[in-house]
Specification:
The chain is built from three helices and eight strands, in the order ββββββββααα. The chain is of the alpha+beta class. The strands form two sheets. Strands 1, 2, 3, 4, 5 and 6 form a six-stranded mixed sheet that branches. Strands 7-8 form a two-stranded antiparallel ribbon. The two termini are 31 Å apart.
Length: 144
């Protein structure tokens, strides 16, 4: 979705939909990640060697633990209007029901004018988050 990806030996044009670019790094960023997004925290796993720079775009969130977009500026992902971009996987949506709710809410509001979601039982997802956060570091357990 960005302007380009520049590798060690070659470069590729991106779609140019958003004003960011990615360059190859010398080492892989691998591991669990905790990211603050508004009033909640995302958890996920990253495995990439790209270094993404957002120019004037807003990040999806701020890295609390992990590397994020480039390992330097403590940003993770990109958020522009209704576009969510991220390096996080592991799987992202089941581990982060609040993000999932936000994406569904935006879609339902835009398509049907629905302003509020019916509350669902997220207890299983919360237990999975607690387990992952405890595995990453017990200081993050309060983010579940």
């Amino acid at each position: 979705m960005g302007k380009y990806y520049r590798g060690k030996r070659d470069a590729a044009c991106g779609l140019g939909l958003l004003d960011f670019y990615t360059e190859a790094g010398d080492k892989y960023f691998v591991g669990n990640v905790v990211v603050k997004v508004g009033d909640y925290h995302l958890i996920g796993f990253e495995n990439h060697s790209g270094r993404t720079y957002l120019n004037e775009l807003n990040p999806l969130g701020q890295v609390i633990s992990g590397f994020g977009n480039n390992g330097k500026d403590k940003t993770e992902g990109v958020r522009y209007k209704n576009v969510f971009g991220t390096y996080l996987h592991g799987p992202l949506l089941p581990k982060n029901p609040k993000l999932c709710d936000d994406i569904i809410s935006i879609a339902l509001k835009n398509k049907y004018g629905i302003e509020e979601l019916q509350e669902l039982d997220d207890s299983l997802e919360i237990k999975a988050r607690q387990h992952t956060l405890k595995f990453i570091n017990s200081k993050f357990i309060s983010f579940a």
